[in-house]
Amino acid sequence: MKKMLVLIPAAVMLFAFTYVAPETKPWIAPASAKKLKNPVTTSKKSSSAKAGKKIFKSRCVACHGAAGKGDGPGGKALNPKPANLTSYKVQKQVDGEIYWKITNGRGAMVKWEGILSKTDRWNLVNYIRTIKASK
Length: 135
Ligand code: HEC
Known about the structure:
single chain, 6 helices, mainly alpha, Cytochrome Bc1 Complex, Chain D, domain 2
């Protein structure tokens, strides 16, 4: 009985500390992210993007949609919604900022560091560059 009296408030506190309010502020990568250099040289960009596309199809489409427009079935109920990766809002960022966001995540956007290698994450950046929407 005594144990319960301790456990219940502990559970309530744990919930209070782990509850994450939906992000309402725009997501901006730190200035340091702009300095991250894409390690893939121009001649290797297309094979890197091809490798990135494979990872995208297995790991990202559920939320970001098959074409990366942010309309995947798994993203419907999310707030904020998964980003439209083809949009100007995303594409105007430098490679390092996109890499940083994939690496660190926010809210429902997965922190891919520790799940995907650095190479995989840069391959994804190079793939995202190929799905830029035409204006
Ligand atoms: C569980 C759903 C989910 C999955 C899976 C997911 N994302 Fe996201 N992603 C999101 C959400 C939601 C956001 C918007 C986060 C925010 O603004 O707080 C986001 C944002 C992003 C952004 C930032 C865009 C911007 O606003 O600048 C990038 C880049 C991105 N995702 C890439 C990826 C890549 C690459 C993968 C696969 C490796 C992936 N995401 C998998 C949900 C997901």
